[in-house]
Amino acid sequence: xxxxxxxxxxxxxxxxxxxxxxxxxxxxxxDKFASKIMTVLSVAGLIAxxxxxxxxxxxxxxxxxxxxxxxxxxSIIAMLVVLIxxxxxxxxxxxxxxxxxxxxxxxxxxxALPEVFSxxxxxxxxxxxxxxxxxLYDMIGMGFGIIIAIVMFFSAFFCMTRLEGRGSILVxxxxxxxxxxxxxxxxxxxxxxNGTIKSNHTLFLFVIFIKNHTDQLMLASIAVFVATALLLIxxxxxVNEPYRNPAQHRKILAKWLRVRRWSVTLIAAAVCGMxxxxxxxxxxxxxxxxxxxxxxxxxxxxxxxxxxxxxxxxLHRFGYESDNGxxxxxxxxxxxxxxxxxxxxxxxxxxxxxGYYERDGQVVCNLCDVVxxxxxxxxxxxxxxxxxxxxxxxxxxxxxxxxxxxYESEFK
Length: 412
Known about the structure:
Elements: H1 2-29, H2 32-58, H3 64-85, H4 91-117, H5 119-127, H6 133-162, H7 167-193, H8 201-212, H9 214-236, H10 246-284, E1 297-298, E2 302-306, H11 307-310, E3 316-321, E4 327-334, E5 341-345, E6 356-359, E7 362-365, E8 391-393, E9 396-400, H12 401-405
Antiparallel strand pairs: 1-2, 2-9, 3-4, 4-5, 6-7, 8-9
Helix pairs in contact: 1-4, 1-6, 1-7, 1-9, 1-10, 2-4, 3-4, 3-7, 5-6, 6-10, 7-8, 7-9, 9-10
């Protein structure tokens, strides 16, 4: 239960906070075009996320790297457009701004939700039936994570509508910049991996810093709204709005009482979210000892694994030590009821180089506890091992060392 509470909270909390900021800013400005375009693209993003989740779970036709790149590019462009247009009063520029904000909202949904929608399917890979206590507990954990995120969304939405002056613009821009930094890191990672751009020290440090501090970025996003809520609470105790009669005065006090209640709700939900990704995560983490790296032959250019070493249906781990003293690990497992093999890096784009281990005949991610579909190991997408080049010849699996060295940075 705790595992899926943590996974769900970590997957969508930052996105729901920012979505609340965007929706609240839109509502605050009371623009009919903005409301319409935001509704249309948000619904489109939700439907696209459901469709992508279904295809990911049932086919091999979805390339996560391709779609992530589309999301990265669209979000970064949308962010730049918002920064350029945010203060303009011209009608056409305002429409461009609202469209860009709506695109950013839709892209966040398409980025975060497919993984969450896939959790029931992932649980069933190990449970095989929904009529089980473990499945129920995991779905309860997922449900609590969704509840925390929904409460954060509506609290952030309400607080944004009550910010005055350019305070709402400042909060909105800061929140979007935090998310865009993650998209930039992901975008550069893909470009460096496929050789479109050459890695350099500065770019490498930026990517590694963002990847290693995703939780901190989420906590920073939440902290911005906690500070906003505290400001609104302080203001609610120092109301100085003019009124003409007692009835109007009571109405003003009632308004600020609602502000105070929503602000307290936001702080409570924020504390719950922070506890989940810190203390609860630390409590739930269990030290799993990865199986040792096995020996295999090498001809100087390739790592060579014989079928005899890996034809028992169990997970086997191999490694190559680079000139920098870094061990680049890869795994091999024979696929069920098949003569083919799943080969991939002992790391994934989502969870990094924490590795995989075997549990009750299943391959499990050491970080997020997601059970791999062994038949899809060697294919791109989700929490699957990163795909590496290899060849099969004369009863041997041949893995080029150059192909492993491309991913040396994953193990630093």
